[in-house]
Structures are given as structure tokens and as C-alpha cells.
Write a structure and sequence with these properties.
5 helices; mainly alpha; single chain; 95 residues; 0% strand
Length: 95
């Protein structure tokens, strides 16, 4: 068993779970937001870790889980101003 198929109560501690719940409710403080995203990136999705397993189907599943974390992390890092400028659907774009 690797961390991709570990039950959530074994993967996360109480602070992680409380922070994720607060994030979901929309009332997480700054520290809880950091704890929640850290838990999602590093404990649940294992961004930055290998997704390899000896079973190729497990490897594919693990990579799918990891991909979700990478996409969320990419959204956190995106420069929103550059995103708006490059959006072809932005009707307020300077010509």
C-alpha cells in the first residue's frame, strides 16, 4: 500500500482535516489555507514525488492523482494579469 491508496484518516492529521474543512466552508484563516494546500499538494496528491508503482495500472492511477495536485498548484502560481492579457475571450483587451 502506498500513500495514493492510504485511507484519508491515516494520511492526514487532525490539523490538516480541520484546515481542509475550513477551506471548504470558505472561512479558513491564512494559516489554515496554507495547511490545507500543503496537505493537498504534498500528502494527498504527492506533487514532487514519484507516482511509480510496479503495477502499471496503479502507476497510471497515481499519476492521475498527482496531476490534479499539479494543476491546482499551477493555478496558485499563475500570474492572473498575464492570463487576462492572453485570454482570447477577453473583450476588454487592448487592440
Amino acid at each position: 500500500m502506498n500513500s495514493f491508496d492510504t485511507p484519508i484518516n491515516k494520511l492526514l492529521d487532525k490539523a490538516d482535516i480541520l484546515a481542509i474543512k475550513a477551506l471548504d466552508r470558505g472561512n479558513a484563516n491564512e494559516n489554515q489555507q496554507k495547511i490545507a494546500l500543503n496537505a493537498i499538494f504534498n500528502k494527498i496528491c504527492r506533487v514532487g514525488k514519484s507516482s511509480f508503482a510496479t503495477d502499471p495500472y496503479q502507476s497510471a492511477f497515481n499519476e492521475g492523482v498527482r496531476y490534479v495536485g499539479i494543476q491546482i498548484h499551477s493555478a496558485v502560481l499563475v500570474d492572473i494579469e498575464k492570463l487576462e492579457l492572453n485570454n482570447p475571450y477577453n473583450k476588454n483587451k487592448n487592440k
